[in-house]
Design goal:
Number of helices: 4
Distance between the termini: 38 Å
Shape: globular
Helix content: under 10%
Radius of gyration: 24 Å
Structural class: mainly beta
Length: 671
């Protein structure tokens, strides 16, 4: 694997986006109507003016709940279904509003982090140096192009300000091992994590930096170690009131050993994978006049992977396999924001993106040797426009985009939405939009091992609409929200072992599906530091056209629900915050039953039902020493995941982690 590249390219973040601190527990979705959100419109916009349903997770909440990985934060988002194939470091996917796992665009300070074609693995994404996470539900291809079919998740790095502050945190974890081959009398698995952060800033400049390392013995009996090192930095400059720039970098190096095969069987003692992921961006903007603002976002993302599996010993006749891959995305996005009136902004933008994928693999097996390599590039161009307008509590969101791809040609998308804030704080909102996901490199150009890509594939497309209402009560101490949505997915790309003709490719646009559901939320800020949050989602999915799949055990089975998407999810959070002493939070998560496929050693496949489960998590901290002047503050931390040691699976054949205890200490000081 190569070390971090020396180039710099665009990185960015829009303006000032600081939310007011919440009393009590910092909750996963805020309904403070004047809070600013960015991802829904690519402009700092009052949340009341955004037609989309936006969830905000603050950095303070992440620290209060002891959350180290973004996936654990997303579990608390109403309607989000997370699937991790077992141990820490294993492949982790997000399903939002019934869409596929590659239908959510992931942005790190504006940098698209998905692989070309939508796939993103949340396993290695930590919360280090994160100031906030925004989750936008519904199609957002108008602003972000491919992959934003059912939503967008954006991470914003901390923006340093004020006197220099430093933090050092250490955590030790202990858990029971799981899976086949584990001796109940064996010692549990252990983990060690540390994180160092530094931030500060003056009137015209600020900075933040974090370095963190995580090491875990793994959940299985052998060959399950995991290592993660994350470096995150950000510098922002604002020389005057007319403009400024942000430069940010995030680099993650991970190593994951795993003994399981595709069915979850514990069979291998030495297979492992390495990954280096780099995100860079520069986001600059300046007002050319009192009304006209120009912005430029340069973004770069590169992910290098390698996989290796050699024979376990001299008697191992399964052979060996080694593969490497390098996926890179480079983009430039230029746009003009014309502030027509104080409540109306017209945006016109253009985006140019170059994608490249290189891979090579070698295998040696009893039936022969083979090697495959590929080097593929494609160019995307996008042109978009957006109108945001508000007057007397009524807000209009309109947008359109023309995508010009050198492989699949041209495609147009749109979004139209409105929001109304009435007397008493009632907010009504509605939106309709389309989205798309481009084919992956392998689906379009793949070759080797008997498979052939299809350069004539069209993008997968969606059409959706939603309506919702939000109502604050008791002077904002209670807030309620409800949303109903419908989505239709078509031109879904499907693989077939038996193409219609001998010379045909293996991938075709043939399947279609539908999803609809209800999302309900309630938040309470009680007296004396107590707070609560409740989120419930009902999801109904159905395969409408199975394409090549004809059996009941197929991935797309006519009339059956889509895989790994539960019909019912419920999250309850209770919190207590004492400014003088610390915080305590309890989170209960109920996930209903869902369908999955079981891949058996005899190469047969059967559709099965994964049982529902209830998981309880507890997190808290206690201030031991209070900061005085330059004297440091010392805080003890505690976290218990899966308190009741619930046995469950998010993917068939891969047991989830059992009860896990983390104890730690955090030292913070003003320099």
């Amino acid at each position: 694997m190569r070390t971090m590249p020396s180039y710099l390219a665009g990185f960015g973040l829009l303006g000032t986006i600081f939310a007011a601190p919440l009393a009590g527990q910092e909750r996963a979705d805020t309904f403070q109507l004047e809070e600013l959100v960015v991802t829904a419109t690519r402009l700092p916009t009052p949340r009341a003016a955004a037609a989309a349903f936006v969830t905000v997770i603050t950095g303070e909440e992440l620290r209060a709940l002891g959350i180290q990985y973004v996936v654990e934060a997303l579990r608390r988002v109403t309607g989000a279904a997370l699937v991790q194939t077992g141990a820490v470091g294993a492949t982790t996917s997000l399903f939002l509003r019934g869409g596929e796992s590659d239908y959510v665009q992931v942005l790190i300070d504006g940098v698209p982090a998905n692989a070309p074609g939508g796939a993103f693995d949340f396993a290695h994404l930590t919360t280090d140096n994160i100031e906030r996470i925004e989750v936008v539900r519904g199609p957002a291809s108008v602003l972000y192009g491919s992959d934003a079919v059912t939503g967008v998740v954006q991470l914003f790095t901390r923006r340093g300000r004020g006197r220099p502050q430093g933090t050092l945190e250490v955590r030790r974890g202990l858990a029971d091992r799981v899976g086949a081959g584990v001796d109940p009398r064996s010692a549990g698995t252990t983990s060690l994590a540390w994180r160092a952060e530094l931030s500060g800033g003056a009137e015209h400049m600020g900075y933040s930096a974090a370095l963190a390392h995580y090491a875990n013995d793994g959940a299985y009996a052998f060959n399950n170690e995991y290592r993660n090192t994350t470096l995150s930095t950000r510098v922002h400059a604002r020389p005057d009131e007319r403009g400024g720039a942000d430069l940010a970098l995030r680099y993650v190096e991970s190593e994951f050993h795993f003994p399981t095969d595709g069915s979850g069987q514990v069979v291998d003692r030495n297979q492992f994978q390495l990954q280096n992921a780099l995100s860079l961006s520069l986001d600059a903007g300046r007002f050319l006049s009192d009304r006209l603002e120009a912005r430029l976002l340069l973004a770069a993302r590169e992910v290098e992977d390698s996989y290796d599996n050699q024979p376990d010993d001299a008697a191992d006749a399964r052979g060996s396999f080694h593969g490497t891959g390098d996926l890179a995305r480079r983009s430039a996005d230029a746009r003009l924001n014309f502030h027509w009136t104080p409540g109306t902004v017209l945006t016109a933008g253009a985006e140019l993106e170059r994608q490249r994928g290189r891979s090579s693999s070698e295998s040696r097996a009893p039936w022969g040797e083979s090697s495959v390599s590929a080097d593929i590039e494609r160019l995307n161009r996008g042109f978009y426009a957006q109108l945001l307008s508000g007057w007397r509590g009524a807000f209009l969101n309109l947008g359109a985009r023309l995508e010009a791809n050198e492989v699949f040609g041209s495609l147009a998308t749109y979004r139209a939405g409105a929001a109304f804030r009435r007397a008493g704080g009632t907010r009504l909102h509605a939106a309709a939009a389309t989205g798309f996901k481009e084919p992956t490199f392998f689906e379009s150009f793949g070759s080797g091992y008997g498979d052939r890509g299809n350069p004539g594939l069209r993008p997968e497309r969606s059409r959706s609409w939603e309506v919702g209402v939000e109502q604050p009560l008791l002077r904002g101490r209670v807030s309620l929200a409800a949303v109903y949505f419908q989505q239709r997915f078509r031109d879904l790309i499907q693989y077939t072992f038996q193409p219609p003709r001998p010379d045909d490719p293996n991938y075709f646009n043939v399947a279609s599906a539908a999803a609809s559901g209800i999302e309900l939320e309630a938040h309470v800020t009680g007296p004396h530091g107590f707070s609560g949050a409740l989120g419930y989602a009902f999801l109904d999915t159905e395969t409408q056209d199975p394409g090549f799949d004809t059996g009941s055990n197929a991935y797309y089975a006519r009339g059956r629900r889509l895989l790994r998407r539960p019909a019912h999810t419920l999250t309850l959070g209770l919190g207590y915050h004492s400014p003088a002493h610390g915080r305590l939070n309890l989170t209960a998560q109920y996930v209903g039953d869902r369908d999955d496929l079981e891949f058996r050693p005899d190469f047969t496949v059967e559709r099965v039902e994964l049982p529902a489960y209830l998981r309880l998590d507890v997190a808290g901290d206690y201030r031991i020493l209070r900061a005085r002047g330059r004297a440091p503050e010392l805080t003890a931390t505690l976290q218990l995941e899966n308190l009741l040691d619930e046995s469950y699976q998010e993917a068939r054949g891969f047991p989830a982690r059992g009860r896990t205890l983390y104890l730690g200490a955090r030292l913070g000081t003003t320099l």
